[in-house]
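Why Tetratricopeptide repeat protein? Reviewers of the renewal asked for a concrete example.
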Amino acid sequence: MFLSEDLDPEELKNEANIKWGKGEIEDANTLWSQALKQCIKYSMRGISHLLNVHNKIDTNRCYPTKKNRDMQLSLRLNLSLYHLKKKEYVDCINQCNIILDNIVNVNDMFSYYENNIDSEEGTCEATETGEGKETDRDAEEDCATDSGRYIVKRDTLIKIFLRRATSFLCLHDFDKCGDNISLVRKLDPQNGEALTLERKMKLEEIDYERKQREMYRKMYQARTHTQSTEDEMNEITPKGETAGGPVGSEPCEVCEDREVHEVG
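Here is what the prediction returned.
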């Protein structure tokens, strides 16, 4: 039985970042995905070891380690950006959701940042898609964690919500887009990208509703036209007549005889 080779997730991620900077996004995505699998494998291996030795999880030694956890967060942020650029909006949203689901006390963290707006200066200027402007690649590792009160920085949360908002907007889910914009505004009331995205959302919602009304109007007109044509056809009197009356009113003797012999 052959064991799979253990690879260094950090080396894989660094190689992927270089390829991303060169525009080789498919290769970068492959390496990021591979690095994430290695991180998950290491964390599961640690949990299995603790269970076998102690028959319970020792929370003081529980895997994944902080480094492993931070690496997974960084990799998923990178993957979410890849999916956003590829217009794979559902996959982008899923990666963002996984990040939030795996943040311990995310609600407490959000409340803390919301109530302490000036407690942390932003370190990574985010764009509408949540990309950092400071580098060509997605330098998530530079702003993924914080040595302060919580493990995830305010800027990282904003980036996640902006990406989800952008994805929902592209999927024409305006309610969820608005919800994520509101979350950004709570963390940073003056966030310029959130304001821009909100204006874009309102314009696109108006345009989308207009197109929907136009589509339904055309469908109704087509249905009405079809119904009118059918009514007109039903009102037309058959031109051909026989001695016994109009064609189709009564079956002729030949038809009656054929029907009798075909039964059975």
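Confidence is low (pLDDT under 50) at residues 48-63, 121-125, 132-147, 258-264. This is the kind of structural detail the renewal will allow us to pursue systematically.
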